[in-house]
């Protein structure tokens, strides 16, 4: 089945900026009611619930990440989504330095620099917030680093960004790299595992997740090490389908075979995928493309299976 194509308006500008310096001009947003006030120490709510974790990607070029925090279980009050993912930053190629660089378009930058109003409110609800990294048609990707030094240099950019903005981790999505562009090499067997190894050393306690797709999905072991030694979670990338990611070293609790596009997958299919997930003992359910529209009824069809509760929407 062909993967659902995901469109994003990435700014096609080569940039060599470091992860600690962003030049995009961002309008300051009003502080939402649930944002922590200066000097306060808000109590972090618990998101723990039986039935596994729900993970949600948000296209922040067109939608607010805060939408993920508007859904709770009617019974118990826990958040529906355990992990919210900012979709997406890019791995770009700097033709001047010949190096891979992390690039955040203005919309991603807006979320990061306004972390107090865009990220922290979700974390205060007990949710984790990750930044997804995606190819950008420039030939640079996770699978074509030719030296450990280059892999570590890019891993350092990712770790610096996660630490600086208080993110809970990094997600890898090996799409749209267009390997071979700019004269860059094709994927090799060592690159992705080296990158994961280096990032885990730099982020020993943060989350690393893998969207099971692209050349990286068939290059998950090298030199006696495997991706499952370093990543915490992996999930299916084909929306509307059920397929267990083949990531050795991850238990069922850390794998998500069900994936739905909230805007395209039928409620009947979403519920069926939830039933398979529960019956087969897997611990992750993946959602993609959350907008501002109230989808409580749609989500309830799944949560009633996974968590034994409907979902309540709070604008």
From TrEMBL:
Protein name, entry field: Chitinase
UniProtKB keywords: Glycosidase, Hydrolase, Signal
Hydrolase recorded as keyword: yes
Keyword match NAD: no
SUPFAM superfamilies noted in UniProt: (Trans)glycosidases (SSF51445)
Secretion signal, residue range per the UniProt entry: 1-24
Lineage: Bacteria, Pseudomonadati, Bacteroidota, Chitinophagia, Chitinophagales
Domain spans labelled GH18: 52-309
TM segment ranges: none
Gene Ontology molecular function, alphabetical: hydrolase activity, hydrolyzing O-glycosyl compounds
Family: Belongs to the glycosyl hydrolase 18 family.
Biological processes annotated in GO: carbohydrate metabolic process
């Amino acid at each position: 089945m062909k993967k659902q194509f995901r469109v994003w308006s990435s700014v096609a500008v080569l940039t060599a900026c470091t992860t600690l310096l962003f030049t995009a001009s961002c309008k300051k947003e009003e502080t939402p009611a649930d944002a922590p006030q200066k000097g306060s120490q808000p109590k972090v709510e618990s998101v723990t619930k039986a039935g596994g974790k729900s993970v949600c990607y948000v296209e922040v070029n067109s939608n607010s990440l805060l939408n993920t925090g508007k859904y709770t279980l009617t019974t118990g009050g826990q958040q529906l989504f355990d992990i919210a993912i900012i979709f997406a930053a890019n791995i770009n190629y700097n033709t001047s330095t010949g190096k891979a660089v992390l690039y955040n378009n203005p919309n991603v930058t807006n979320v990061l620099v306004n972390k107090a109003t865009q990220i922290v409110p979700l974390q205060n609800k007990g949710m984790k917030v990750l930044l997804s990294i995606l190819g950008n048609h420039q030939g640079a990707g996770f699978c074509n680093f030719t030296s450990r030094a280059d892999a570590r240099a890019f891993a350092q950019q990712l770790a610096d960004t996660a630490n600086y903005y208080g993110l809970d981790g990094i997600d890898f999505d090996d799409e749209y790299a267009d390997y071979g562009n700019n004269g860059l090499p094709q994927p090799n067997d060592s690159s992705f595992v080296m990158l994961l190894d280096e990032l885990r050393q730099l982020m020993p306690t943060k989350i690393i997740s893998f969207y099971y797709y692209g050349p990286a999905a068939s290059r998950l072991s090298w030199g006696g090490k495997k991706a499952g030694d370093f990543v915490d979670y992996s999930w299916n990338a084909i929306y509307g389908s059920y397929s267990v990611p083949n990531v050795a070293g991850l238990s069922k609790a850390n794998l998500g075979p069900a994936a739905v596009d909230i805007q395209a997958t039928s409620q009947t299919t979403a519920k069926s995928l939830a039933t398979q997930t529960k019956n087969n003992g897997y611990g992750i359910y993946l959602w993609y493309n959350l907008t501002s529209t109230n989808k409580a009824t749609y989500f309830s069809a799944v949560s009633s299976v996974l968590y034994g509760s409907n979902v309540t929407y709070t604008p």
